[in-house]
Amino acid sequence: MSAVPQAQKVKSANEAYLHVLCALMLRDMRTRFGASLWGYGVVVLWPCVHVFVLIAIYTFQKLAAPLGDSRPLFFATGAVPVLVFQYISREVMKAVIMNRPLTYYPQVKIFDVILARILVEIVTGFLALIVISSVLAAIGTDPVPSDPLTAVCGYIAAIILGVGVGTINVAIIAFFPGYLIGYSLFSIILYISSGVMFLPSYMPDKIYYWMKYNPALQLAEWVRLAYYPYSGLQIDFLYIIMFGLTTTSIGLLLVKHIVGKIQM
């Protein structure tokens, strides 16, 4: 007889948690740009504008694509996975700063804030990818990769890496608030060296060897390999996966043990 009430309690607790999570996600979407959900459209279009500005610059300068015949496709395949990684890793950290007062409520935990922002960023990245693919199709460029499974795995790896670095960032910023600016500057260096605007494999072997330690570079090459299987790109899949899983594990452990510090 006691099993039924216990099951109802578990169901009620799960429903309450989902309500908290949904409320945090809606709050993130409403407060990013303006006090309405329409402002969320700006968040979705922001990475799209980034990609298309890059394409426009190279088009007006009449520079050939380093790989393949399509400039838009080359830049989009490199920029999107790198931006997915960077947005998640940065926005998770900013979410904790912006939503810290909410953690004073007993129903809201710091992990809930992190999870809500991760889910919002995954949805945002997916919507941005749809917009970019639609625009590419509209201008006559086929956005469908030759190897869809490789492309999907590349985007999943970008999400895992973003979550891992983002959770570590949360732990660091709990003790060093100025780290947000430092990481933003570091992200610029990662982006420039990730090969979005050029093909790193054309660099001298000694330079390319060290550049491949940048996981963002290998993310860009991973997705590009799905579109250009003839390119001969060599990706260290194990390195990226282990890097992402290791940072995620370390980040979650750090967050778990510094929750008291963050909520003070």
Short recap of the structure:
By secondary structure, the protein is mostly helical.
Describe the protein:
- The chain has helices spanning 3-31, 39-60, 71-98, 110-138, 148-175, 179-192, 205-211, 215-227, 237-257, 259-263.
- With 264 residues, it is mainly α.
- The chain has one domain (3-263).
- It is globular.
- The protein starts with a helix and ends with a helix.
- The mean pLDDT is 82.
Detail the topology: elements first, then pairings.
Layout: H1 3-31, H2 39-60, H3 71-98, H4 110-138, H5 148-175, H6 179-192, H7 205-211, H8 215-227, H9 237-257, H10 259-263
What gyration radius follows from the Cα positions, in whole Å? 20 Å
What number of domains?
1
Order of helices and strands: HHHHHHHHHH
- Compute the average pLDDT: 82
Distance between the termini: 43 Å
Annotation, overall tally of beta strands: 0
Secondary structure: helix percent: over 70%
Global geometry: globular
> Percent of residues in beta strands?
under 5%
Q: Spans of 5+ residues with little confidence (pLDDT < 50)?
A: none
**DSSP helical segment count:** 10
Biggest pleated sheet: none
